[in-house]
Structures are given as C-alpha cells and as structure tokens.
Write a structure and sequence with these properties.
Length: 128
C-alpha cells in the first residue's frame, strides 16, 4: 500500500497540560502530512501550529511512530506518523483549523486527558 508520511506532536505547556484537538467526534493530537523538502520535525511543528494556533514549540524528544490504514478516493493507504514530544510557553488564544474539520482545541490536565482518551484512537492512547 502507498505510504502517507505525517508528523505530529504531544505538546506540554508550563502547567504540564497536554494540547488536544477535537475532530470527527474524537479527541486527537495535532498532526499532518509532510510537505516537500521539509524535515519530519519541521512537519510536526508546522502542523501543530496550523491546527491549533500554538507557537513557540520546542521538540524535547521523539515518541513512538504510529501506523494506520485509511481509505481515500476508494484507495487504501498507510499513514506513518512520526510523533514528537514538545513544550511551549505559549499562553495565547487557541485557534482550531476549521477547514481541516477541527472544531475544538484545548489544553487538558491529567484528569481531562484520561477522560478524552475514552473517546480517542488506540494509537493516541499509546502515546499518552
């Protein structure tokens, strides 16, 4: 199957909260497809910024890579997502990227994160 390469982030703020997006009635971590001549780290940072409005991101370490099969235009593909733990001191307003189907962006504390994982994807539970 053809591969789609993506990068994403598990982002912590200064309160140790994790940045989540809400899309397709599920909580998820921000991620997206790599663009030409972009490192996977650059992809991850750009996608988090675009999907959430958060800036000042700094990668602190690599996280496990995830894989899932999806269907687009009648064809199956494998999405390979390279994940990075990030931190930021950002305290501004969050902006969901609505044209990507994101309806909410939120910083979730430990309790709220555990609740969000009940309505998330198995690959996200692995990362959190």
């Amino acid at each position: 199957l053809p591969n789609v390469v993506a990068g994403g982030g598990k982002v912590y703020n200064s309160k140790n909260e994790v940045l989540f997006i809400y899309r397709n009635d599920k909580w998820d971590l921000p991620k997206g497809k790599a663009e030409r001549k972009e490192t996977i780290e650059e992809t991850a940072i750009r996608e988090v910024e675009e999907e959430t409005g958060v800036s000042g991101l700094q990668i602190t370490k690599s996280l496990p890579t995830t894989y899932h099969i999806f269907k687009r235009n009648g064809k199956h593909k494998i999405k390979v997502t390279y994940w990075f733990e990030m931190k930021t001191e950002f305290t501004g307003e969050l902006f969901p990227q609505e044209n990507e189907g994101i309806t909410k962006v939120a910083w979730l504390d430990n309790k709220a994160t555990q609740e969000a994982l009940d309505n998330s994807y198995a690959n996200i539970r692995i990362l959190v």
